[in-house]
Amino acid sequence: xxxxxxxxxxxxxxxxxxxxxxxxxxxxxxxxxxxxxxxxxxxxxxxxxxxxxxxxxxxxxxxxxxxxxxxxxxxxxxxxxxxxxxxxxxxxxxxxxxxxxxxxxxxxxxxxxxxxxxxxxxxxxxxxxxxxxxxxxxxxxxxxxxxxxxxxxxxxxxxxxxxxxxxxxxxxxxxxxxxxxxxxxxxxxxxxxxxxxxxxxxxxxxxxxxxxxxxxxxxxxxxxxxxxxxxxxxxxxxxxxxxxxxxxxxxxxxxxxxxxxxxxxxxxxxxxxxxxxxxxxxxxxxxxxxxxxxxxxxxxxxxxxxxxxxxxxx
Length: 314
Ligand code: CP
Fold this sequence. Notes:
Layout lengths: L18 H13 L1 H5 L12 E6 L5 H12 L3 E6 L11 H10 L4 E6 L4 H6 L6 E6 L5 H15 L6 E5 L6 H12 L3 E5 L19 E4 L2 H4 L5 E4 L15 H8 L3 H4 L8 E2 L12 H4 L7 H19 L3
Parallel strand pairs: 1-2, 1-3, 3-4, 5-6, 5-8, 6-7, 8-9
This protein binds phosphoric acid mono(formamide)ester.
Phosphoric acid mono(formamide)ester (CP) binds next to helix 3.
């Protein structure tokens, strides 16, 4: 089946999606913008449908925005976390989902610290699975909201160069962004300490955009069209790869002085949560002239509406 004609059954990764599939989801998200932000009335597209949020790892933005997205499409949401379910008695994720499926749940939104778990689940059940972030692998709805935000600000992304800076090794956000951006024809520059930005990442995506690895943030800043900063993921042992936090800050923090080296109007993104004062200074994160961080969060509701409506055939 040609990629552009496929029906998306699950949404577990941006890797492997065709350009047309990504742009169609982005266009649909843009059509939901006013409803997503609460400026227009909620829709009835998913009235009577049930979405189960299964967040086995903490989340503020993704979990809240999936809930808002589902409700603004008229759906109901079951909110399940690890604590308080029979997973604490040893029930497998597959058994949990099969039981919820038997009760008539229409889609699962799964966050897990284990890379690959949403794909494994999607291979074994018919109910649509949305990956809300799996370990170090992918966070495809975050990838879509990053693309939507960049597209709003820069226009078409083909031929643009986006820097992704910091703890790339541990970042599912970076992997989804790499696949999404290069599929849309943008080039990606990965920047950070060698231990957190391995050379192999140059080969990770299929193109047509290309990925380059570098370690000189100051040298790259004047030539890129946008900068996406990444959180240093101490919970995934990123600290072990950093000898000195002060040295990391000296070389890779987006400070006000570094932001001044960027092209005029070039925007700054960060998926959140931020380590303020480490990978990004508050003066940049809160700068309304450059920072798109809250715009990313706002767009997160619209892209999750687009994904849910598309998977559920609405
Ligand atoms: N960006 C993101 O995934 O944030 P949460 O962990 O708060 O969902």
